[in-house]
Give the backbone structure.
Amino acid sequence: MSTSHTNVNFRELIKRPTCFLGLGFGSGLAPVAPGTFGTVAAIPIYLLMQNLSLMMYVSLTVLAFIAGIWICQLSADWIGKADPSAVVWDEIVGYLITMIAAPTGWLWIVTGFILFRLFDILKPWPISLADREIHGGLGIMVDDVIAGIFAAITLQLAANYA
């Protein structure tokens, strides 16, 4: 197998579409910082969505969250761990939440990336509480959703005062 932390290789992964999504199109197989690589994988998705109407953007993001509960649970079950670091669909959705109504331009894409990663890694309350207390697919997703909300608020405040 290609990675010790997941016992999964890319060839096996692409045979399982749900797990391919759960592992962020393979980005979660990065040997270090899979969450960061998963967030990088979210940037092209954001770029494809950024010109949608706010209603369509939010609708697709909510759909990605709802589907993510199932995607993350199936991926975790396949790997055999409760919350494997290789499952990064939650980072993708968290970044999409961060970028809701974000200003355009690479400065804001990078700023949103940094803010989301900071909130996701540091896990201030209530992110840490959700991470500890909620389990399964919902648990995998919800701490990143909250991190994305915190990052989105911070990004909007920065944009309004820039």
In short: The helical segments are 10-13, 17-22, 34-49, 54-79, 89-98, 106-122, 127-133, 136-161.
